[in-house]
Amino acid sequence: MKENKKKGFLEVLQNYINNSLSGSDKKAMDIWYDSLGNPEEESLQASQKQQLEQKLWNKIEQAKSSESLSESVIPFWHQSFFKIATAASVLLVLGFLYLISDYRKVHNFPVKGVAQEEIISLNKVTNTHHTPKKINLEDGSLVELEEGASLYYPKSFDASTRMVYLEGDGFFDISKDPQRPFIVYSGDIVTKVLGTSFTIKKDKNSGKMEVAVITGKVIVEPSDRTSRDFKAQAGGVVLTPNERVTILPDRAEYIAGLVEKPALLDQNEPSLRSVDAFVFAEATLSDIVAKLENAYGVEIKVENAAILNCTITADLTTESLFTKLDILNALLNSDSKIKGKTIVISGGECKPFQPKK
Predict the structure, then answer these.
(1) How far apart are CA 319 and CA 9, in angstroms?
(2) Domains, in order of start, for the chain
(3) Which of 114, 137, 222, 240 is the 20 to 30 Å CA partner of 26?
């Protein structure tokens, strides 16, 4: 009777994995599956599986030792049956654990259209802590996962591409390899780089995604696993430092713009390291705009050509880019707005220089 129940359960389990259950059977299996706990926390790594297997076999050896004490009174066929039954139970448990572990990995995979065999072959790391978790990949790249995020990656990258899959938020610092683009699949988008640093974030409530570039060049486009080279496909967006793209899932819309706090491209640049790098004395707006564009890698457009030759005296050393622009607007009575990836300064007039008394 117990064997029939065991066989019946395994048949139902296999149908559940194949997504062929419905009605009360599926509901019951859903409840059972949820009771197993957090798949990210309980998913067995290869080393853990080996440890479990060793423990189970140790119990077999213990059982055999106990059995040997009473061998003289137990018929041989009973002993053989006991050994076979015990070994079969171990194999059943191990097979069941492997099956559940692989099912969880496939069931929770963040990208559609990936073969089950490929998913099972990938390493998976999940950050279950409140602080970022660092992962050093075999090519020298660094990934930092935020709390709750998971990274799926191969044991070794192939000769043409470096491909990983992200669920949640992560920071990437990718080693340069012009011959092998680094490709990150996350939800419905794919991010392709050669060697750069960037972040990928996803809002858990709205599903809105954002890719922001810190250094280098990044291509973001709709996920298409047939495209594995460093070329922008239809609908793709090319990003450079201090640029970001926001993807709205319900409209599949890509909105390019600037990051919230643009940073200097190279803080070790000699012309930017000096204490007076952004101290201007009787400098024209044209010269100031050119320096800001070079320092932050952004485009600044001045609509009113008449103010390009206005002279300005100001110390903008410790200010952020947008605060620098606010100061310039106050001095020129102008206004600035961000349109896409461009900062546009409009209006304004030259004001006479008034030295402090």
Answers:
(1) 66
(2) 2-107 (no CATH), 116-258 (2.60.120.1440), 270-347 (3.55.50.30)
(3) 114
